[in-house]
Amino acid sequence: MEKYLWQKTLLELYSGYKTCIVSCDNKLTRLIRKAFGTHGSTYDQLDDMRLVVLRKKHCQYAKQMIEKALASIKPMTSSVLYWRYMRGRQFNEIANEMNIPIRQVFRKYDKEMSHFASSLATQGYTTEVIEEEFGADSYFSYAYDRLCTKNANVSKQPIVTCLISLDVANDTTSKKNTKSKQHAYKSLEC
Fold this sequence. Notes:
Strand content: under 5%
Shape: elongated
Oligomer: single chain
Order of helices and strands: HHHHHHHHH
Distance between the termini: 27 Å
Helix content: 55-70%
């Protein structure tokens, strides 16, 4: 198994956090209107609202964690992680921009990923803590599963285009509910 998969998952999703937060706000607004409208009682919508607020909190929390950990990699503009995840560049583009061989880009990437994971661990976010905090949210677990199986025959479509398409009523806070995970996979396929 590859090292730092949960840390990479948080980084992979970085560019979509802002969109996810806005989508959560919009979804929450719709749920509130629906709860006070003729479509059902407020009590029917509370669980859906709770899940949307939890997803928003996770995205905000992950974004802050990443920014704090990346700030510890000096200097930021010469960081491969910065160019890869915050600027969305491919490894060959990073090599061209930095005017270094691609092999050196991969070495720097591995070294910086190790430093990034160490910085998160120093903040108290070990792999186990990250998995416990974010693993139950299908937005994060789907991205994690995609990274785990990226060499298999998996769709190459960007993860961020599939933000909140799943029905939050079927989302779960338990990793053991495979029926809900299967639903999340079906809903997140674009």
